TrEMBL record:
Pfam families linked to this entry: Epimerase (PF01370)
Family: Belongs to the NAD(P)-dependent epimerase/dehydratase family. Dihydroflavonol-4-reductase subfamily.
Keywords: Oxidoreductase
This protein's name: Unnamed protein product
Domain NAD-dependent epimerase/dehydratase: 5-131
Gene3D superfamilies reported in the protein's UniProt record: NAD(P)-binding Rossmann-like Domain
Amino acid sequence: MARRALLTGGNGFIGSHILAQLLDHGCTVCCAVRTQEKGDKILRDFATQQSQITITIVPDIVAPGAYDTAVQGTPAFDAVYHTASPFTYANAGSNLQFLEPAIKGTLNLLKAVKDNAPSVKRVIWTGSCASVIDYDNLVADPPRIYTEADWNPVTWEEAVNGDPSKAYRGSKLFAEREEAGNQRFVVCARQFDFQDVCDILRSHHPELSERTPLGKPGTRSLPPGAYSIDNSKVKKFLGVEFRSLEETVLDAARCMLDIERNEKQALST
Ligand SMILES: NC(=O)c1ccc[n+]([C@@H]2O[C@H](COP(=O)([O-])OP(=O)(O)OC[C@H]3O[C@@H](n4cnc5c(N)ncnc54)[C@H](OP(=O)(O)O)[C@@H]3O)[C@@H](O)[C@H]2O)c1
């Protein structure tokens, strides 16, 4: 675990979880975000660990040299975590707005580290199964089992001119292909389908039965030939132990119910 890290996208979903883990392990973290308001929100969200956090503003990750100053921390960083990348389709005006920050932002960061941050021993970049899986052919005979050796077949042409999902898949593919010289890990616990999710919810939260589809309890809804992922590499080399599907679904449900309860309370006061 790093002792002093630079984290991009620390205000995002994945980034905030990485930040929480780093802080809990005693690491000090500099969060690179687009605006001071986003940095202030991080400081509020992690109020009890504020002393371990600093904020640096990188307004445009596409601009040449965008990260050159941010990577030069004092004391120097020993690791960089890069999660900043377009993920929400709603925020993208065009496919290029998806592709450019993903590709140029990543290249800018890697170049900045190479040229200006010799203390950095490791750069961790969040890829996606989107750069691995062929989402246009999810079912096959025999079923596909994807590994770190696989790349989705999206072309640059499709990424620029196709629907937004092609832009996202392209953004992850081309950003990774440009620079993936080292280790690639696909982090995926298991195959599951939404019948499993409904069955778990209905058995633990009968009060939600009106809001949980019934489907055909106890059956599989995935078609024969549906793809799966071989996760042996991440388990072997990083020692990852995955949570059960039941724990994951129930945790997510608990969080959503908390949010709903808080929103209702806020509206009634
Ligand atoms: N969530 C998943 O299930 C999942 C699965 C696989 C991979 N990933 C990968 O994990 C990373 C983070 O995803 P997430 O789920 O945490 O998404 P998220 O909550 O939408 O967070 C995205 C982060 O990237 C930043 N960002 C987006 N567009 C940017 C741009 N043009 N310039 C600078 N910063 C930009 C956002 O900052 P602003 O607030 O300033 O926009 C935010 O900090 C992405 O690389 C994504 O591909 C996510």
